[in-house]
Prior knowledge:
- There is one protein chain.
- The chain is α/β, with parallel strands linked by helices.
- The chain has one domain (about 5-205): Flavodoxin domain (Rossmann fold, 3-Layer(aba) Sandwich), CATH 3.40.50.360.
- The chain is built from 7 helices and 7 strands, in the order βαβααββαβαββαα.
- The protein has helices at about 20-35, 50-60, 65-75, 95-100, 125-140, 160-180, 195-205; strands spanning about 5-10, 40-45, 80-90, 90, 110-120, 140-145, 150.
- Strands 1, 2, 3, 4, 5, 6 and 7 form a 7-stranded mixed sheet that branches.
- Strand 3 and strand 4 form a beta hairpin.
- Helix 1 packs across helix 6 (about 160-180).
- The N and C termini lie far apart (about 45 Å).
- Mean pLDDT is about 90; it is low at about 190-195.
Amino acid sequence: MTTRTIAVVTAGLSEPSSTSLLGARLAEAATAALRERGDDVLVELIELRPLAHQLADNLLTGFAAADLARAQATIAGADAVIAVTPVFSASYSGLFKTFFDVLEADSLAGVPVLMAATAGTARHSLVLEHALRPLFAYLRATTVPTGVFAASEDWGDVSSGALADRITRAAGELAGLVSGRPARRTPDAFDQVEDFEDLLRGLES
């Protein structure tokens, strides 16, 4: 049995947050879909609200503090990412964008990503296509066909109805992209260290 790591990135600012709730629902559905395919699942939650100051510091200094560095490493080793943002000014939030701005190059290259967003009204539903999908295309991620948008009125009954159907469909698509692939692992800092004997031989030649 292969263990798959799903990183769930949520950028909600309130507590409790509908953004975090949607991320949890998507993770639950993706876990179930992967287990049906014979995979074990480890879910790693990355809430951006507590990382806000570290993200700003990283933009200014170029260095990631410990918690942010762990979040970056989680993304680098994840088999899939569920990314959920609230909608601000008809687009993703600044906190959400900043996190993806400070990832190491190629962290998401080829990685399956399930995009999702929350807002107070369904008028913002196209944010998935005009903002999130271009962002992840630039990062060379593999986005699932179905994005999940949840407006306030969608939370009346999340066990059934249109939102539940979208969650199930998107989670199944994510599982289909992940299952059968070799599992990723978090890069080890020592992977890039050359063997000492090889270095000596290079000096002698």
